[in-house]
Amino acid sequence: MALLLSAAVVNAAEDEYEFKNAEQAQTFKELTLELRCPKCQNQNIADSDAIVAKDLRDKVLTLVHEGNSKQEVIDYMIDRYGYFVHYQPPVTPATIILWVLPVIIVVLGFGFIVFRQKKAAIKQPWSAADDKRLEQLIAQYQRKERQQ
Amino acid sequence: MNRKILGFLPFLIFVLLCVFLYQGLFGNPRELQTGRLGQTMPSFNLPDLMDENKRWTEKDLLGEVYLMNVWGTWCPTCIAELGYLTKLREQGVKIVGLYYEQAYDPDFGDHFDMNALRKEVDTMLSRAGNPYQFNILDLERSLALDLGVSGAPETFLVDKKGTILLHHTGDINQRVWRSKFLPALEELQ
Questions:
Q1: Would residue B128 count as lying in a domain?
Q2: What is the nearest CA distance from A63 to chain B, expressed in angstroms?
Q3: In chain A, what residues touch B166 (CB-CB under 8 Å)?
Q4: Which of B29, B32, B148 is facing A80, going by the closest CB pair?
Q5: Which backbone phi and psi does B130 adopt, to 5 degrees?
Q6: Cβ–Cβ of B33/A84 closer than 8 Å?
Q7: E strand or H helix that includes residue B181
Q8: Which residue range or ranges hold the Thioredoxin domain (chain B) (predicted)?
Q9: B36 to chain A, minimum CA–CA distance in Å?
Q10: Nearest to B138 by CA among B105, B161, B164, B115
Q11: CATH code for position B108
Q12: Strand, coil or helix: what is B95?
């Protein structure tokens, strides 16, 4: 639903704006969906009615018109609003754990399963000593039964 | 022994994860959203709020430590902090206003009158206290965008060389001033 709504807003926005070519229109559309409104808790700038979201939309439009690439526009925004403004988190020392943690968990979990199965698959050797011990235990048990 | 530790490992991971998520719950996401820290004040050339013939650039602000306070008369929190900011001015803190008017934008207001705005600002400042040395008028919000302002009030602490040391979102009160601005100012000396 939210996706449909935001798509509708972008389409509405596109009607207002004119582009030199389809590529620029596409870049603008992608950017407004990917950039996060700095004032709102969790909305992209295509979706938000906040004044700052409108300012960012206008700025994105200008930058796209000037022929900036998508990455250049994103860098421009990050320079001002920090990494918060982009929905795709970059790999930095602070966020590396977010990227690596899922991989570690999957590898550890898989390793654990393999380890358990291998252990279960090992055939326990049965020796004469084990035979003797079993007989002993049976005899002990039977003695207990008789005593009751 | 080894097995015991291994058995506790999932529990340990669970506890660590809880601490991590708990922090996320009470952390302030707004604190992270600033890209201008440690950089110099972006260049600008904007008129004075009260006198359109007077223009300000970033060079006029060099040589003194100052606060740049983003505000507007349409913003209730900005009005609320005027009193405390005025106290700071009386203590010798230099405060520059960056004024932006929402009603100027056709999408957010239906009419705009510069003279009415000046009168409104005058009345407001004489009633609630005037903390500003002067006000820079940023009608197009171009400087606000370059500074990474997402709303009002927001305040920047800038040193003599024009480097932005702090970017605070929300109002300034005694608690914020003591915990955030004073330590930064002490570090300067």
A1: yes
A2: 13
A3: none
A4: B148
A5: -115, 100
A6: yes
A7: none
A8: 35-189
A9: 6
A10: B105
A11: 3.40.30.10
A12: strand
Distances (CA, A) of A47 to A3, A55, A77, B72, B145: 10, 13, 17, 25, 19
pTM of the predicted model, to two decimals?
0.74
* B35 to A50: CB separation less than 8 angstroms, yes or no: no
Express each pLDDT in A2-17 by its tens digit. 444 444 444 544 456 7
Longest dimension (CA), chain B: 81
pLDDT digits (tens, 9 = 90+) for A90-109: 777 777 888 888 999 999 99
The pLDDT value recorded for residue B29 is 58
Chain A and chain B share a number of CB contacts under 8 A equal to 51
Give me the residue label for tokens 């330590």.
B183
Ramachandran quadrant class, A67 (left: phi over 0; alpha: psi -120 to 50; beta: rest): left
Whether B151 and A52 lie within 8 Å, measured CB to CB: yes
Question: What is the ipTM metric for this complex?
Answer: 0.79
Distances (CA, A) of B10 to A106, B1, B4, B60: 14, 16, 11, 60
- Let me know if residue B17 belongs to a domain: no
CB contact under 8 A, A39 and B35: no
CA dihedral sign of residues B114, B88, B172, A59: positive
Distance CA A35, CA B144 (A): 18
Q: Which residues pair with B164 in a beta bridge?
A: B158
How confident is the model over A69-84, as pLDDT tens digits?
A: 999 999 999 999 888 8
Is B143 a member of any domain? yes
Total domains in the fold of chain B: 1
Identify the domain containing residue B142 by its residue range.
Answer: 37-187
Q: How far is B29 from chain A (nearest CA, A)?
A: 8
pLDDT tens digits, residue range A107-127? Answer: 999 999 999 888 888 777 888
Q: Do A80 and B147 touch (CB under 8 A)?
A: yes
* Nearest chain A Cα distance for residue B146, angstroms: 6
Q: Is residue B23 part of a domain?
A: no
The residues in A 52-111 lying below 8 A from B, measured between CB atoms, are: 52, 54-56, 59, 78-85
